[in-house]
Write a structure and sequence with these properties.
The chain has one helix and eleven strands. The chain has a three-stranded antiparallel sheet with strand order 1-2-3. It has a three-stranded antiparallel sheet with strand order 7-4-11, with no helix packed on it. The protein starts with 15 loop residues before the first strand and ends with a strand.
């Protein structure tokens, strides 16, 4: 595991180093624990549905409002159940396959089943 040494949270300078279980800023002398910093950098962003439930790969969701698909006359209807979603990076966090085709949707329009 590679530990990335962050800049100091007090003064913002990048002249920091690791000393046993702490990071130390050579400029201002501020010390903070290594575990706090590595937990923040290693954590994956959580994607939540419209009710605040955490989504994960393979979940089943329901569309909570009618969604018009750009560039076509297709409308994804409210209440449509989508199985086996896949989470991806970007503006549209959910990749899914429905009867009408494959779509990328925003999680704020979905509700976990």
């Amino acid at each position: 595991m590679t530990i990335i040494i962050p800049a100091c949270s007090e003064c913002g300078m990048s002249n920091t180093y690791q000393y046993s279980d702490n990071f130390v800023c050579a400029d201002c002398g501020h010390e903070w624990p290594v575990t706090q910093s590595t937990a923040d950098t290693d954590a994956e962003p959580t994607i939540k549905d419209s009710n605040g439930n955490i989504l994960s790969d393979g979940d089943a969701v329901v569309i909570i409002k009618d969604l018009k698909v750009k560039g076509s006359s297709i409308t994804l209807k409210m209440g449509t159940k989508v199985k086996s979603i896949r989470l991806v990076d970007g503006d549209h966090e959910v990749d899914c396959k429905t009867d009408m085709g494959q779509f990328m949707l925003k999680a704020c329009f979905l509700k976990k089943v």
